[in-house]
Amino acid sequence: MDNKIRSILFAVLFFVLLFPFKSYATDDTFTVTGLTMDHTTGYYSFYYSGYTGGDISRESVAIFGTGWGYNDEPASCTGGSSGAGTCSGIFNYSNGTFSCTPTLNVSIYGYNPSSPTFNYAF
Q1: Which residues pair with 69 in a beta bridge?
Q2: Under CATH, what is the fold of the domain 25-121?
Q3: Domain boundaries defined on the chain
Q4: For the segment 14-46, what is each residue's pLDDT rounded down to a tens digit?
Q5: Which end of the chain is more exposed for a tag (fewer CB within 10 A), N or C?
Q6: What is the pLDDT of residues 45-56, one digit of tens each?
């Protein structure tokens, strides 16, 4: 076998072993219902289900669209490790200027940077 081909095969095999097949472009998902958000006061609330990130009590919430976003760090969410509950509060961080966007995203993410991010898009 040609050394160039052998090197390419080794590199591909090394990459697959180092980074197992997983979709890195999308994060884990959950379901959001009953979303309420007032961008003028910063208040939000929603019900979530299907969350598999463990205890939600120390996590943060982001609601964002193209060119803008609001965060509550850490958020006030109920449900513990059950995977379902409610999140509500007042955003304490904002970025950009709110505008209507075709897609609205809700993320639950780690206040601790090592936690995974969970997303829901409307």
Answers
A1: 64, 95
A2: Immunoglobulin-like (2.60.40)
A3: 25-121
A4: 333 333 333 333 456 788 999 999 989 999 999
A5: N
A6: 999 999 888 888
In contact, 32 and 45? CB cutoff 8 Å: no
**Token duo for residue 11:** 């590199």
Say if residues 61 and 108 touch (Cβ distance below 8 Å): yes
Beta bridge partners of 47: 33, 86
Q: What's the CA gap between 108 and 79, in Å, rounded?
A: 13
| Separation in Å, CA 49 to CA 98, 99, 112 | 26, 27, 21
What pTM was computed for the model?
Answer: 0.71
